[in-house]
Design brief:
The chain has 399 residues and is mainly α. Helices cover 67% and strands 1% of the residues.
């Protein structure tokens, strides 16, 4: 168990640099230090389970197994549309999803003391991610030199180590809600210095959300923060939050100077609408089981003819700007129903523990905002957001 904890702590520490430490291969497969440590972590956990024959009940076991099974079936049914290589690449993403979901099982089995350590490591990892964001914002405001690797330029926007302001914004929202729990705890316990420190971190994170200039992140922030404040019965702070967000729009010096920092921009909105329409078109061609999880990139090339020399590696090719359309297109109606069941069970897990566990409030409000934001970006299937959600789920459920 000591090795398992060590690997998990190393995994969490690597979280802030995982994306920028990624190695991209020509076939669309990428490998990061996060992937390597996660593979070692899950392997060690499986070994311990087999050796000591530990059997426990898990609230999310059934919905996870059902969804993963359906995803595998959809991929097998679409084997004739894929080459051996593209089938393997698609299967790798499904394998990764299994690894991400395994974090829930691993964290759930930790003792209370280890879970407390995990909660502080999450706070530390999130802080480093926010810090990297500010360093990037002031010293590396243009991602244009990485366009050849499939990234957009994102001029004058905070994208941190995620290299994408929309996903960075979504993570910052998750982290902001998470820090509020520590603010609340330290306020109740009258730990003044800790309260000042974590409150400062919360404000920095809140500003970071805005500096991504991601409208989906702002929508997610609005939904998550209001839900959190209602659940902790602090409704009067909702007005303060809304006023702060409005103030930021007028105070920020770059709000309307570039297309990317213009909150009223239309180009990206139109692009998202096109992306969603393409996803719906692909779903209509394969309504029952979809094109296979996750063979979306190859389906786009088949039905839409991607005329891009980097279509195999560009990040926009792997999904559509809506998580639910993504599920429909890749797994069809059957997979969509099982995914909604999984999502419902995660909400139920957090909802049943709102009084008993402080992280249940965090997960419930975060997931509600994440669901709202996922209408505009594929945030529900983004690597680091999946990891964050499943870790929180593991912290909630008792052994």
């Amino acid at each position: 168990m000591g090795l398992l904890k060590l690997l998990f702590f190393l995994f969490l520490i690597s979280f802030p640099i995982a994306e920028i430490g990624k190695v991209q291969l020509d076939n669309g497969v990428s490998v990061s230090i996060n992937d390597v440590l996660l593979l070692l972590l899950v392997s060690a956990w499986i070994f311990i389970k087999i050796r000591y024959k530990k059997r426990k009940k898990y609230f999310l076991q059934k919905p996870i197994l059902i969804f993963v099974s359906i995803c595998l079936i959809t991929l097998i049914l679409n084997f004739y549309n894929l080459t051996a290589e593209t089938f393997f690449v698609s299967f790798l993403y499904l394998s990764r999803f299994v690894f991400y979901a395994s974090l829930y099982f691993i964290v759930k089995e930790f003792d209370l003391n280890t879970k407390n350590n995990v909660s502080f490591l999450l706070l530390f990892s999130g802080f480093i991610t926010v810090l990297i964001g500010y360093i990037q914002y002031f010293f590396y405001p243009n991602l244009g030199n990485l366009f050849y690797l499939g990234w957009d330029e994102h001029l004058y926007r905070m994208f941190s180590s995620f290299l994408d302001p929309n996903f960075a914004g979504a993570f910052f929202v998750l982290y902001f809600i998470y820090t509020l729990t520590f603010v609340k705890d330290y306020f109740i316990k009258r730990k003044i210095y800790s309260l000042i420190s974590v409150s400062f971190l919360s404000v920095l994170t809140l500003i970071a959300v805005y500096l991504t200039y991601s409208r989906s992140a702002l929508i997610m922030l609005f939904v998550s923060a209001i839900t959190y404040l209602i659940l902790i019965k602090k409704k009067r702070f909702i007005v303060i939050l809304v006023l702060f967000l409005i103030l930021m729009v007028f105070v920020s010096p770059k709000s309307f100077q570039t297309e990317g920092t213009n909150l009223l921009r239309t180009v990206s909105s139109e692009a998202r609408i096109v992306s969603m329409k393409q996803g719906i078109f692909i779903f209509e061609k394969n309504p029952v089981f979809g094109v296979g999880f996750n063979a979306y990139r190859y389906a786009q090339n088949k039905y839409l003819g991607l005329n891009n020399i980097i279509w195999k590696t560009t990040h926009s090719g792997a999904g559509t700007d809506n998580s639910f359309i993504f599920v429909l297109a890749t797994t069809g109606i059957v997979g969509f129903i099982t995914y909604l069941y999984l999502l419902y069970k995660i909400f139920l897990l957090s909802g049943n523990n709102l009084i008993k566990n402080k992280y249940a409030i965090v997960l419930f409000s975060s997931l509600l905002g994440l669901t709202a934001g996922s209408i505009f970006i594929n945030s529900l299937f983004y690597v680091f957001i999946l990891e964050w959600v499943f870790i929180l789920a593991g912290l909630i459920e008792n052994n």
